[in-house]
Amino acid sequence: MNRSSYRHARRSVVASSTGVLLTALLVGCGGAGGTVASGATDTQGKASAACGKVPTIAPKDPDGAVKALPAELQKAYNAYGEDVFASAWRDKKKLDRAAKVGFSYLPVSNAFAASVVKQMDASFAAAKAEGLVQGKLVKRIMTDPATMTPAEQIRGYNELVDSGVDIIFITALSGDAMVSAVDAAGKKGVVTVALSSTIRSKYAVNVAENSYLNVARPTALVAKQLDGKGNVVVVRGFQGLSTEKIGYQAVKDVLAACPDMKVLGEVNGAFVPPVAKAELLKFLSSHPQKVDMVAQLGVMGSGVYAAFDSTGRKVPKVVDAGASASSLASWKKLEAADGYETAGTGGNGTQETKALFSVGMMVMAGQGPKVGTITREPSLITKANLADYLPKGAKPSDLGEVADGEAWMPQAYLDKFFDHPADPAKN
């Protein structure tokens, strides 16, 4: 793609779905795991020993921070695509007053983003009632997804630092671009807590989905459902994003262990359901072969279902990483008709923001984060728990998020990543 084409594609994609990129953005597009964070994510996968299994790949752990965690937590870092540092805030003392809080965010352009902003306001209000924070939540939210740049976000971030905040909650447009600013703020004592994106600074505490597992787990399960046989189409995301690269590697690693699964081709859905639908329709028009699986890298499940529905062809098993209300409604409709079964992953902005804010307050309370990145094993959606994630009354045309389903990062889980969780001497 030449430079002018890239600019046009970026404007079109970002203008229509900045919030989509947040989900994992997938949401864990990693959903849904990281957002638009870029980085040296040279994930070199290794095929698993058996088809239908998730590969085991050591995380990037330069400080040994992951290795020092309990074994039960280490599993969540399998194949994590970004460096996981020890936290600079492990020995931070409890703030001796209510904290001043800043919030740096991307344009509010979809249901996930709207949920994040709404829950951030609610969490701040609750914390203020408890005397943990003061004043107003100081916001720097970019307004135009078509023109936003990392430089714009950095300017707003630095304004928050200069305003005297003690902690900044952020979803970074570019994790790498933020490193210098976060380092400088950290040296001044300002804590940065990032949602869905990985900022590779020891002064950042990242709360993020594991983008590799977010795609690998449902892809492996669907491969198992197919007994390791069939034709596959891969729907890629917005290429150049670290989460896209990591998710794509996950698909390749899983399929490498399944010699009887043939990749018919790839299309670029850019993490935008309408784009995924349009590009997939073009592909299907010239590929009459039966498709058994569509491995999409996040949040594009609804577009995949819509494409097959438009053609009248039999709907394959759609790997629904970063599921939406729409994609789950399509899944349920097919299940009711003929017993259709697949797998996906899910989470929503409300759940993730609650966890983000809790982590920030724990850091400010001097509870001592053991690692700079807190992650989890993705919530796997299957036939058994589909009803827990499908919003009541949802239809294939709905644009909303999935229901809560499994708790995303409950307090008991977060406590395990801190040295002094709810320690009376520290709080």
Question: Care to describe what's here?
Answer:
The chain is of the alpha/beta class. 38% of the residues lie in helices and 12% in strands. It contains 13 helices and twelve strands. The protein has a six-stranded parallel β-sheet, sandwiched between helices. β9, α10 and β10 form a beta-alpha-beta unit. α3 runs parallel beside α11, α6 packs parallel to α7 and α8 runs parallel beside α9. The radius of gyration is 21 Å and the shape is globular. It starts with a helix and ends in a 12-residue tail after the last helix. The N terminus is likely disordered.
Which bin fits the share of residues in helices? Answer: 25-40%
SSE pattern: HHEHEHEHEEHEHEHEHEHEHEEHH
Strand coverage percent? 5-15%
Number of strands: 12
Question: How many helices?
Answer: 13
Amino-to-carboxy terminus distance: 54 Å
* Coarse morphology: globular
Q: What is the radius of gyration computed over CA atoms, rounded to a whole number of angstroms?
A: 21 Å
Structural class: alpha/beta
Mean pLDDT score: 89
Descriptive keywords:
427 residues, alpha/beta, six-stranded parallel β-sheet, six-stranded mixed β-sheet, 13 helices, 12 strands, 38% helix, disordered N terminus
Give a short summary of the structure.
By secondary structure, the protein is an alpha/beta fold. The chain has 13 helices and twelve strands.
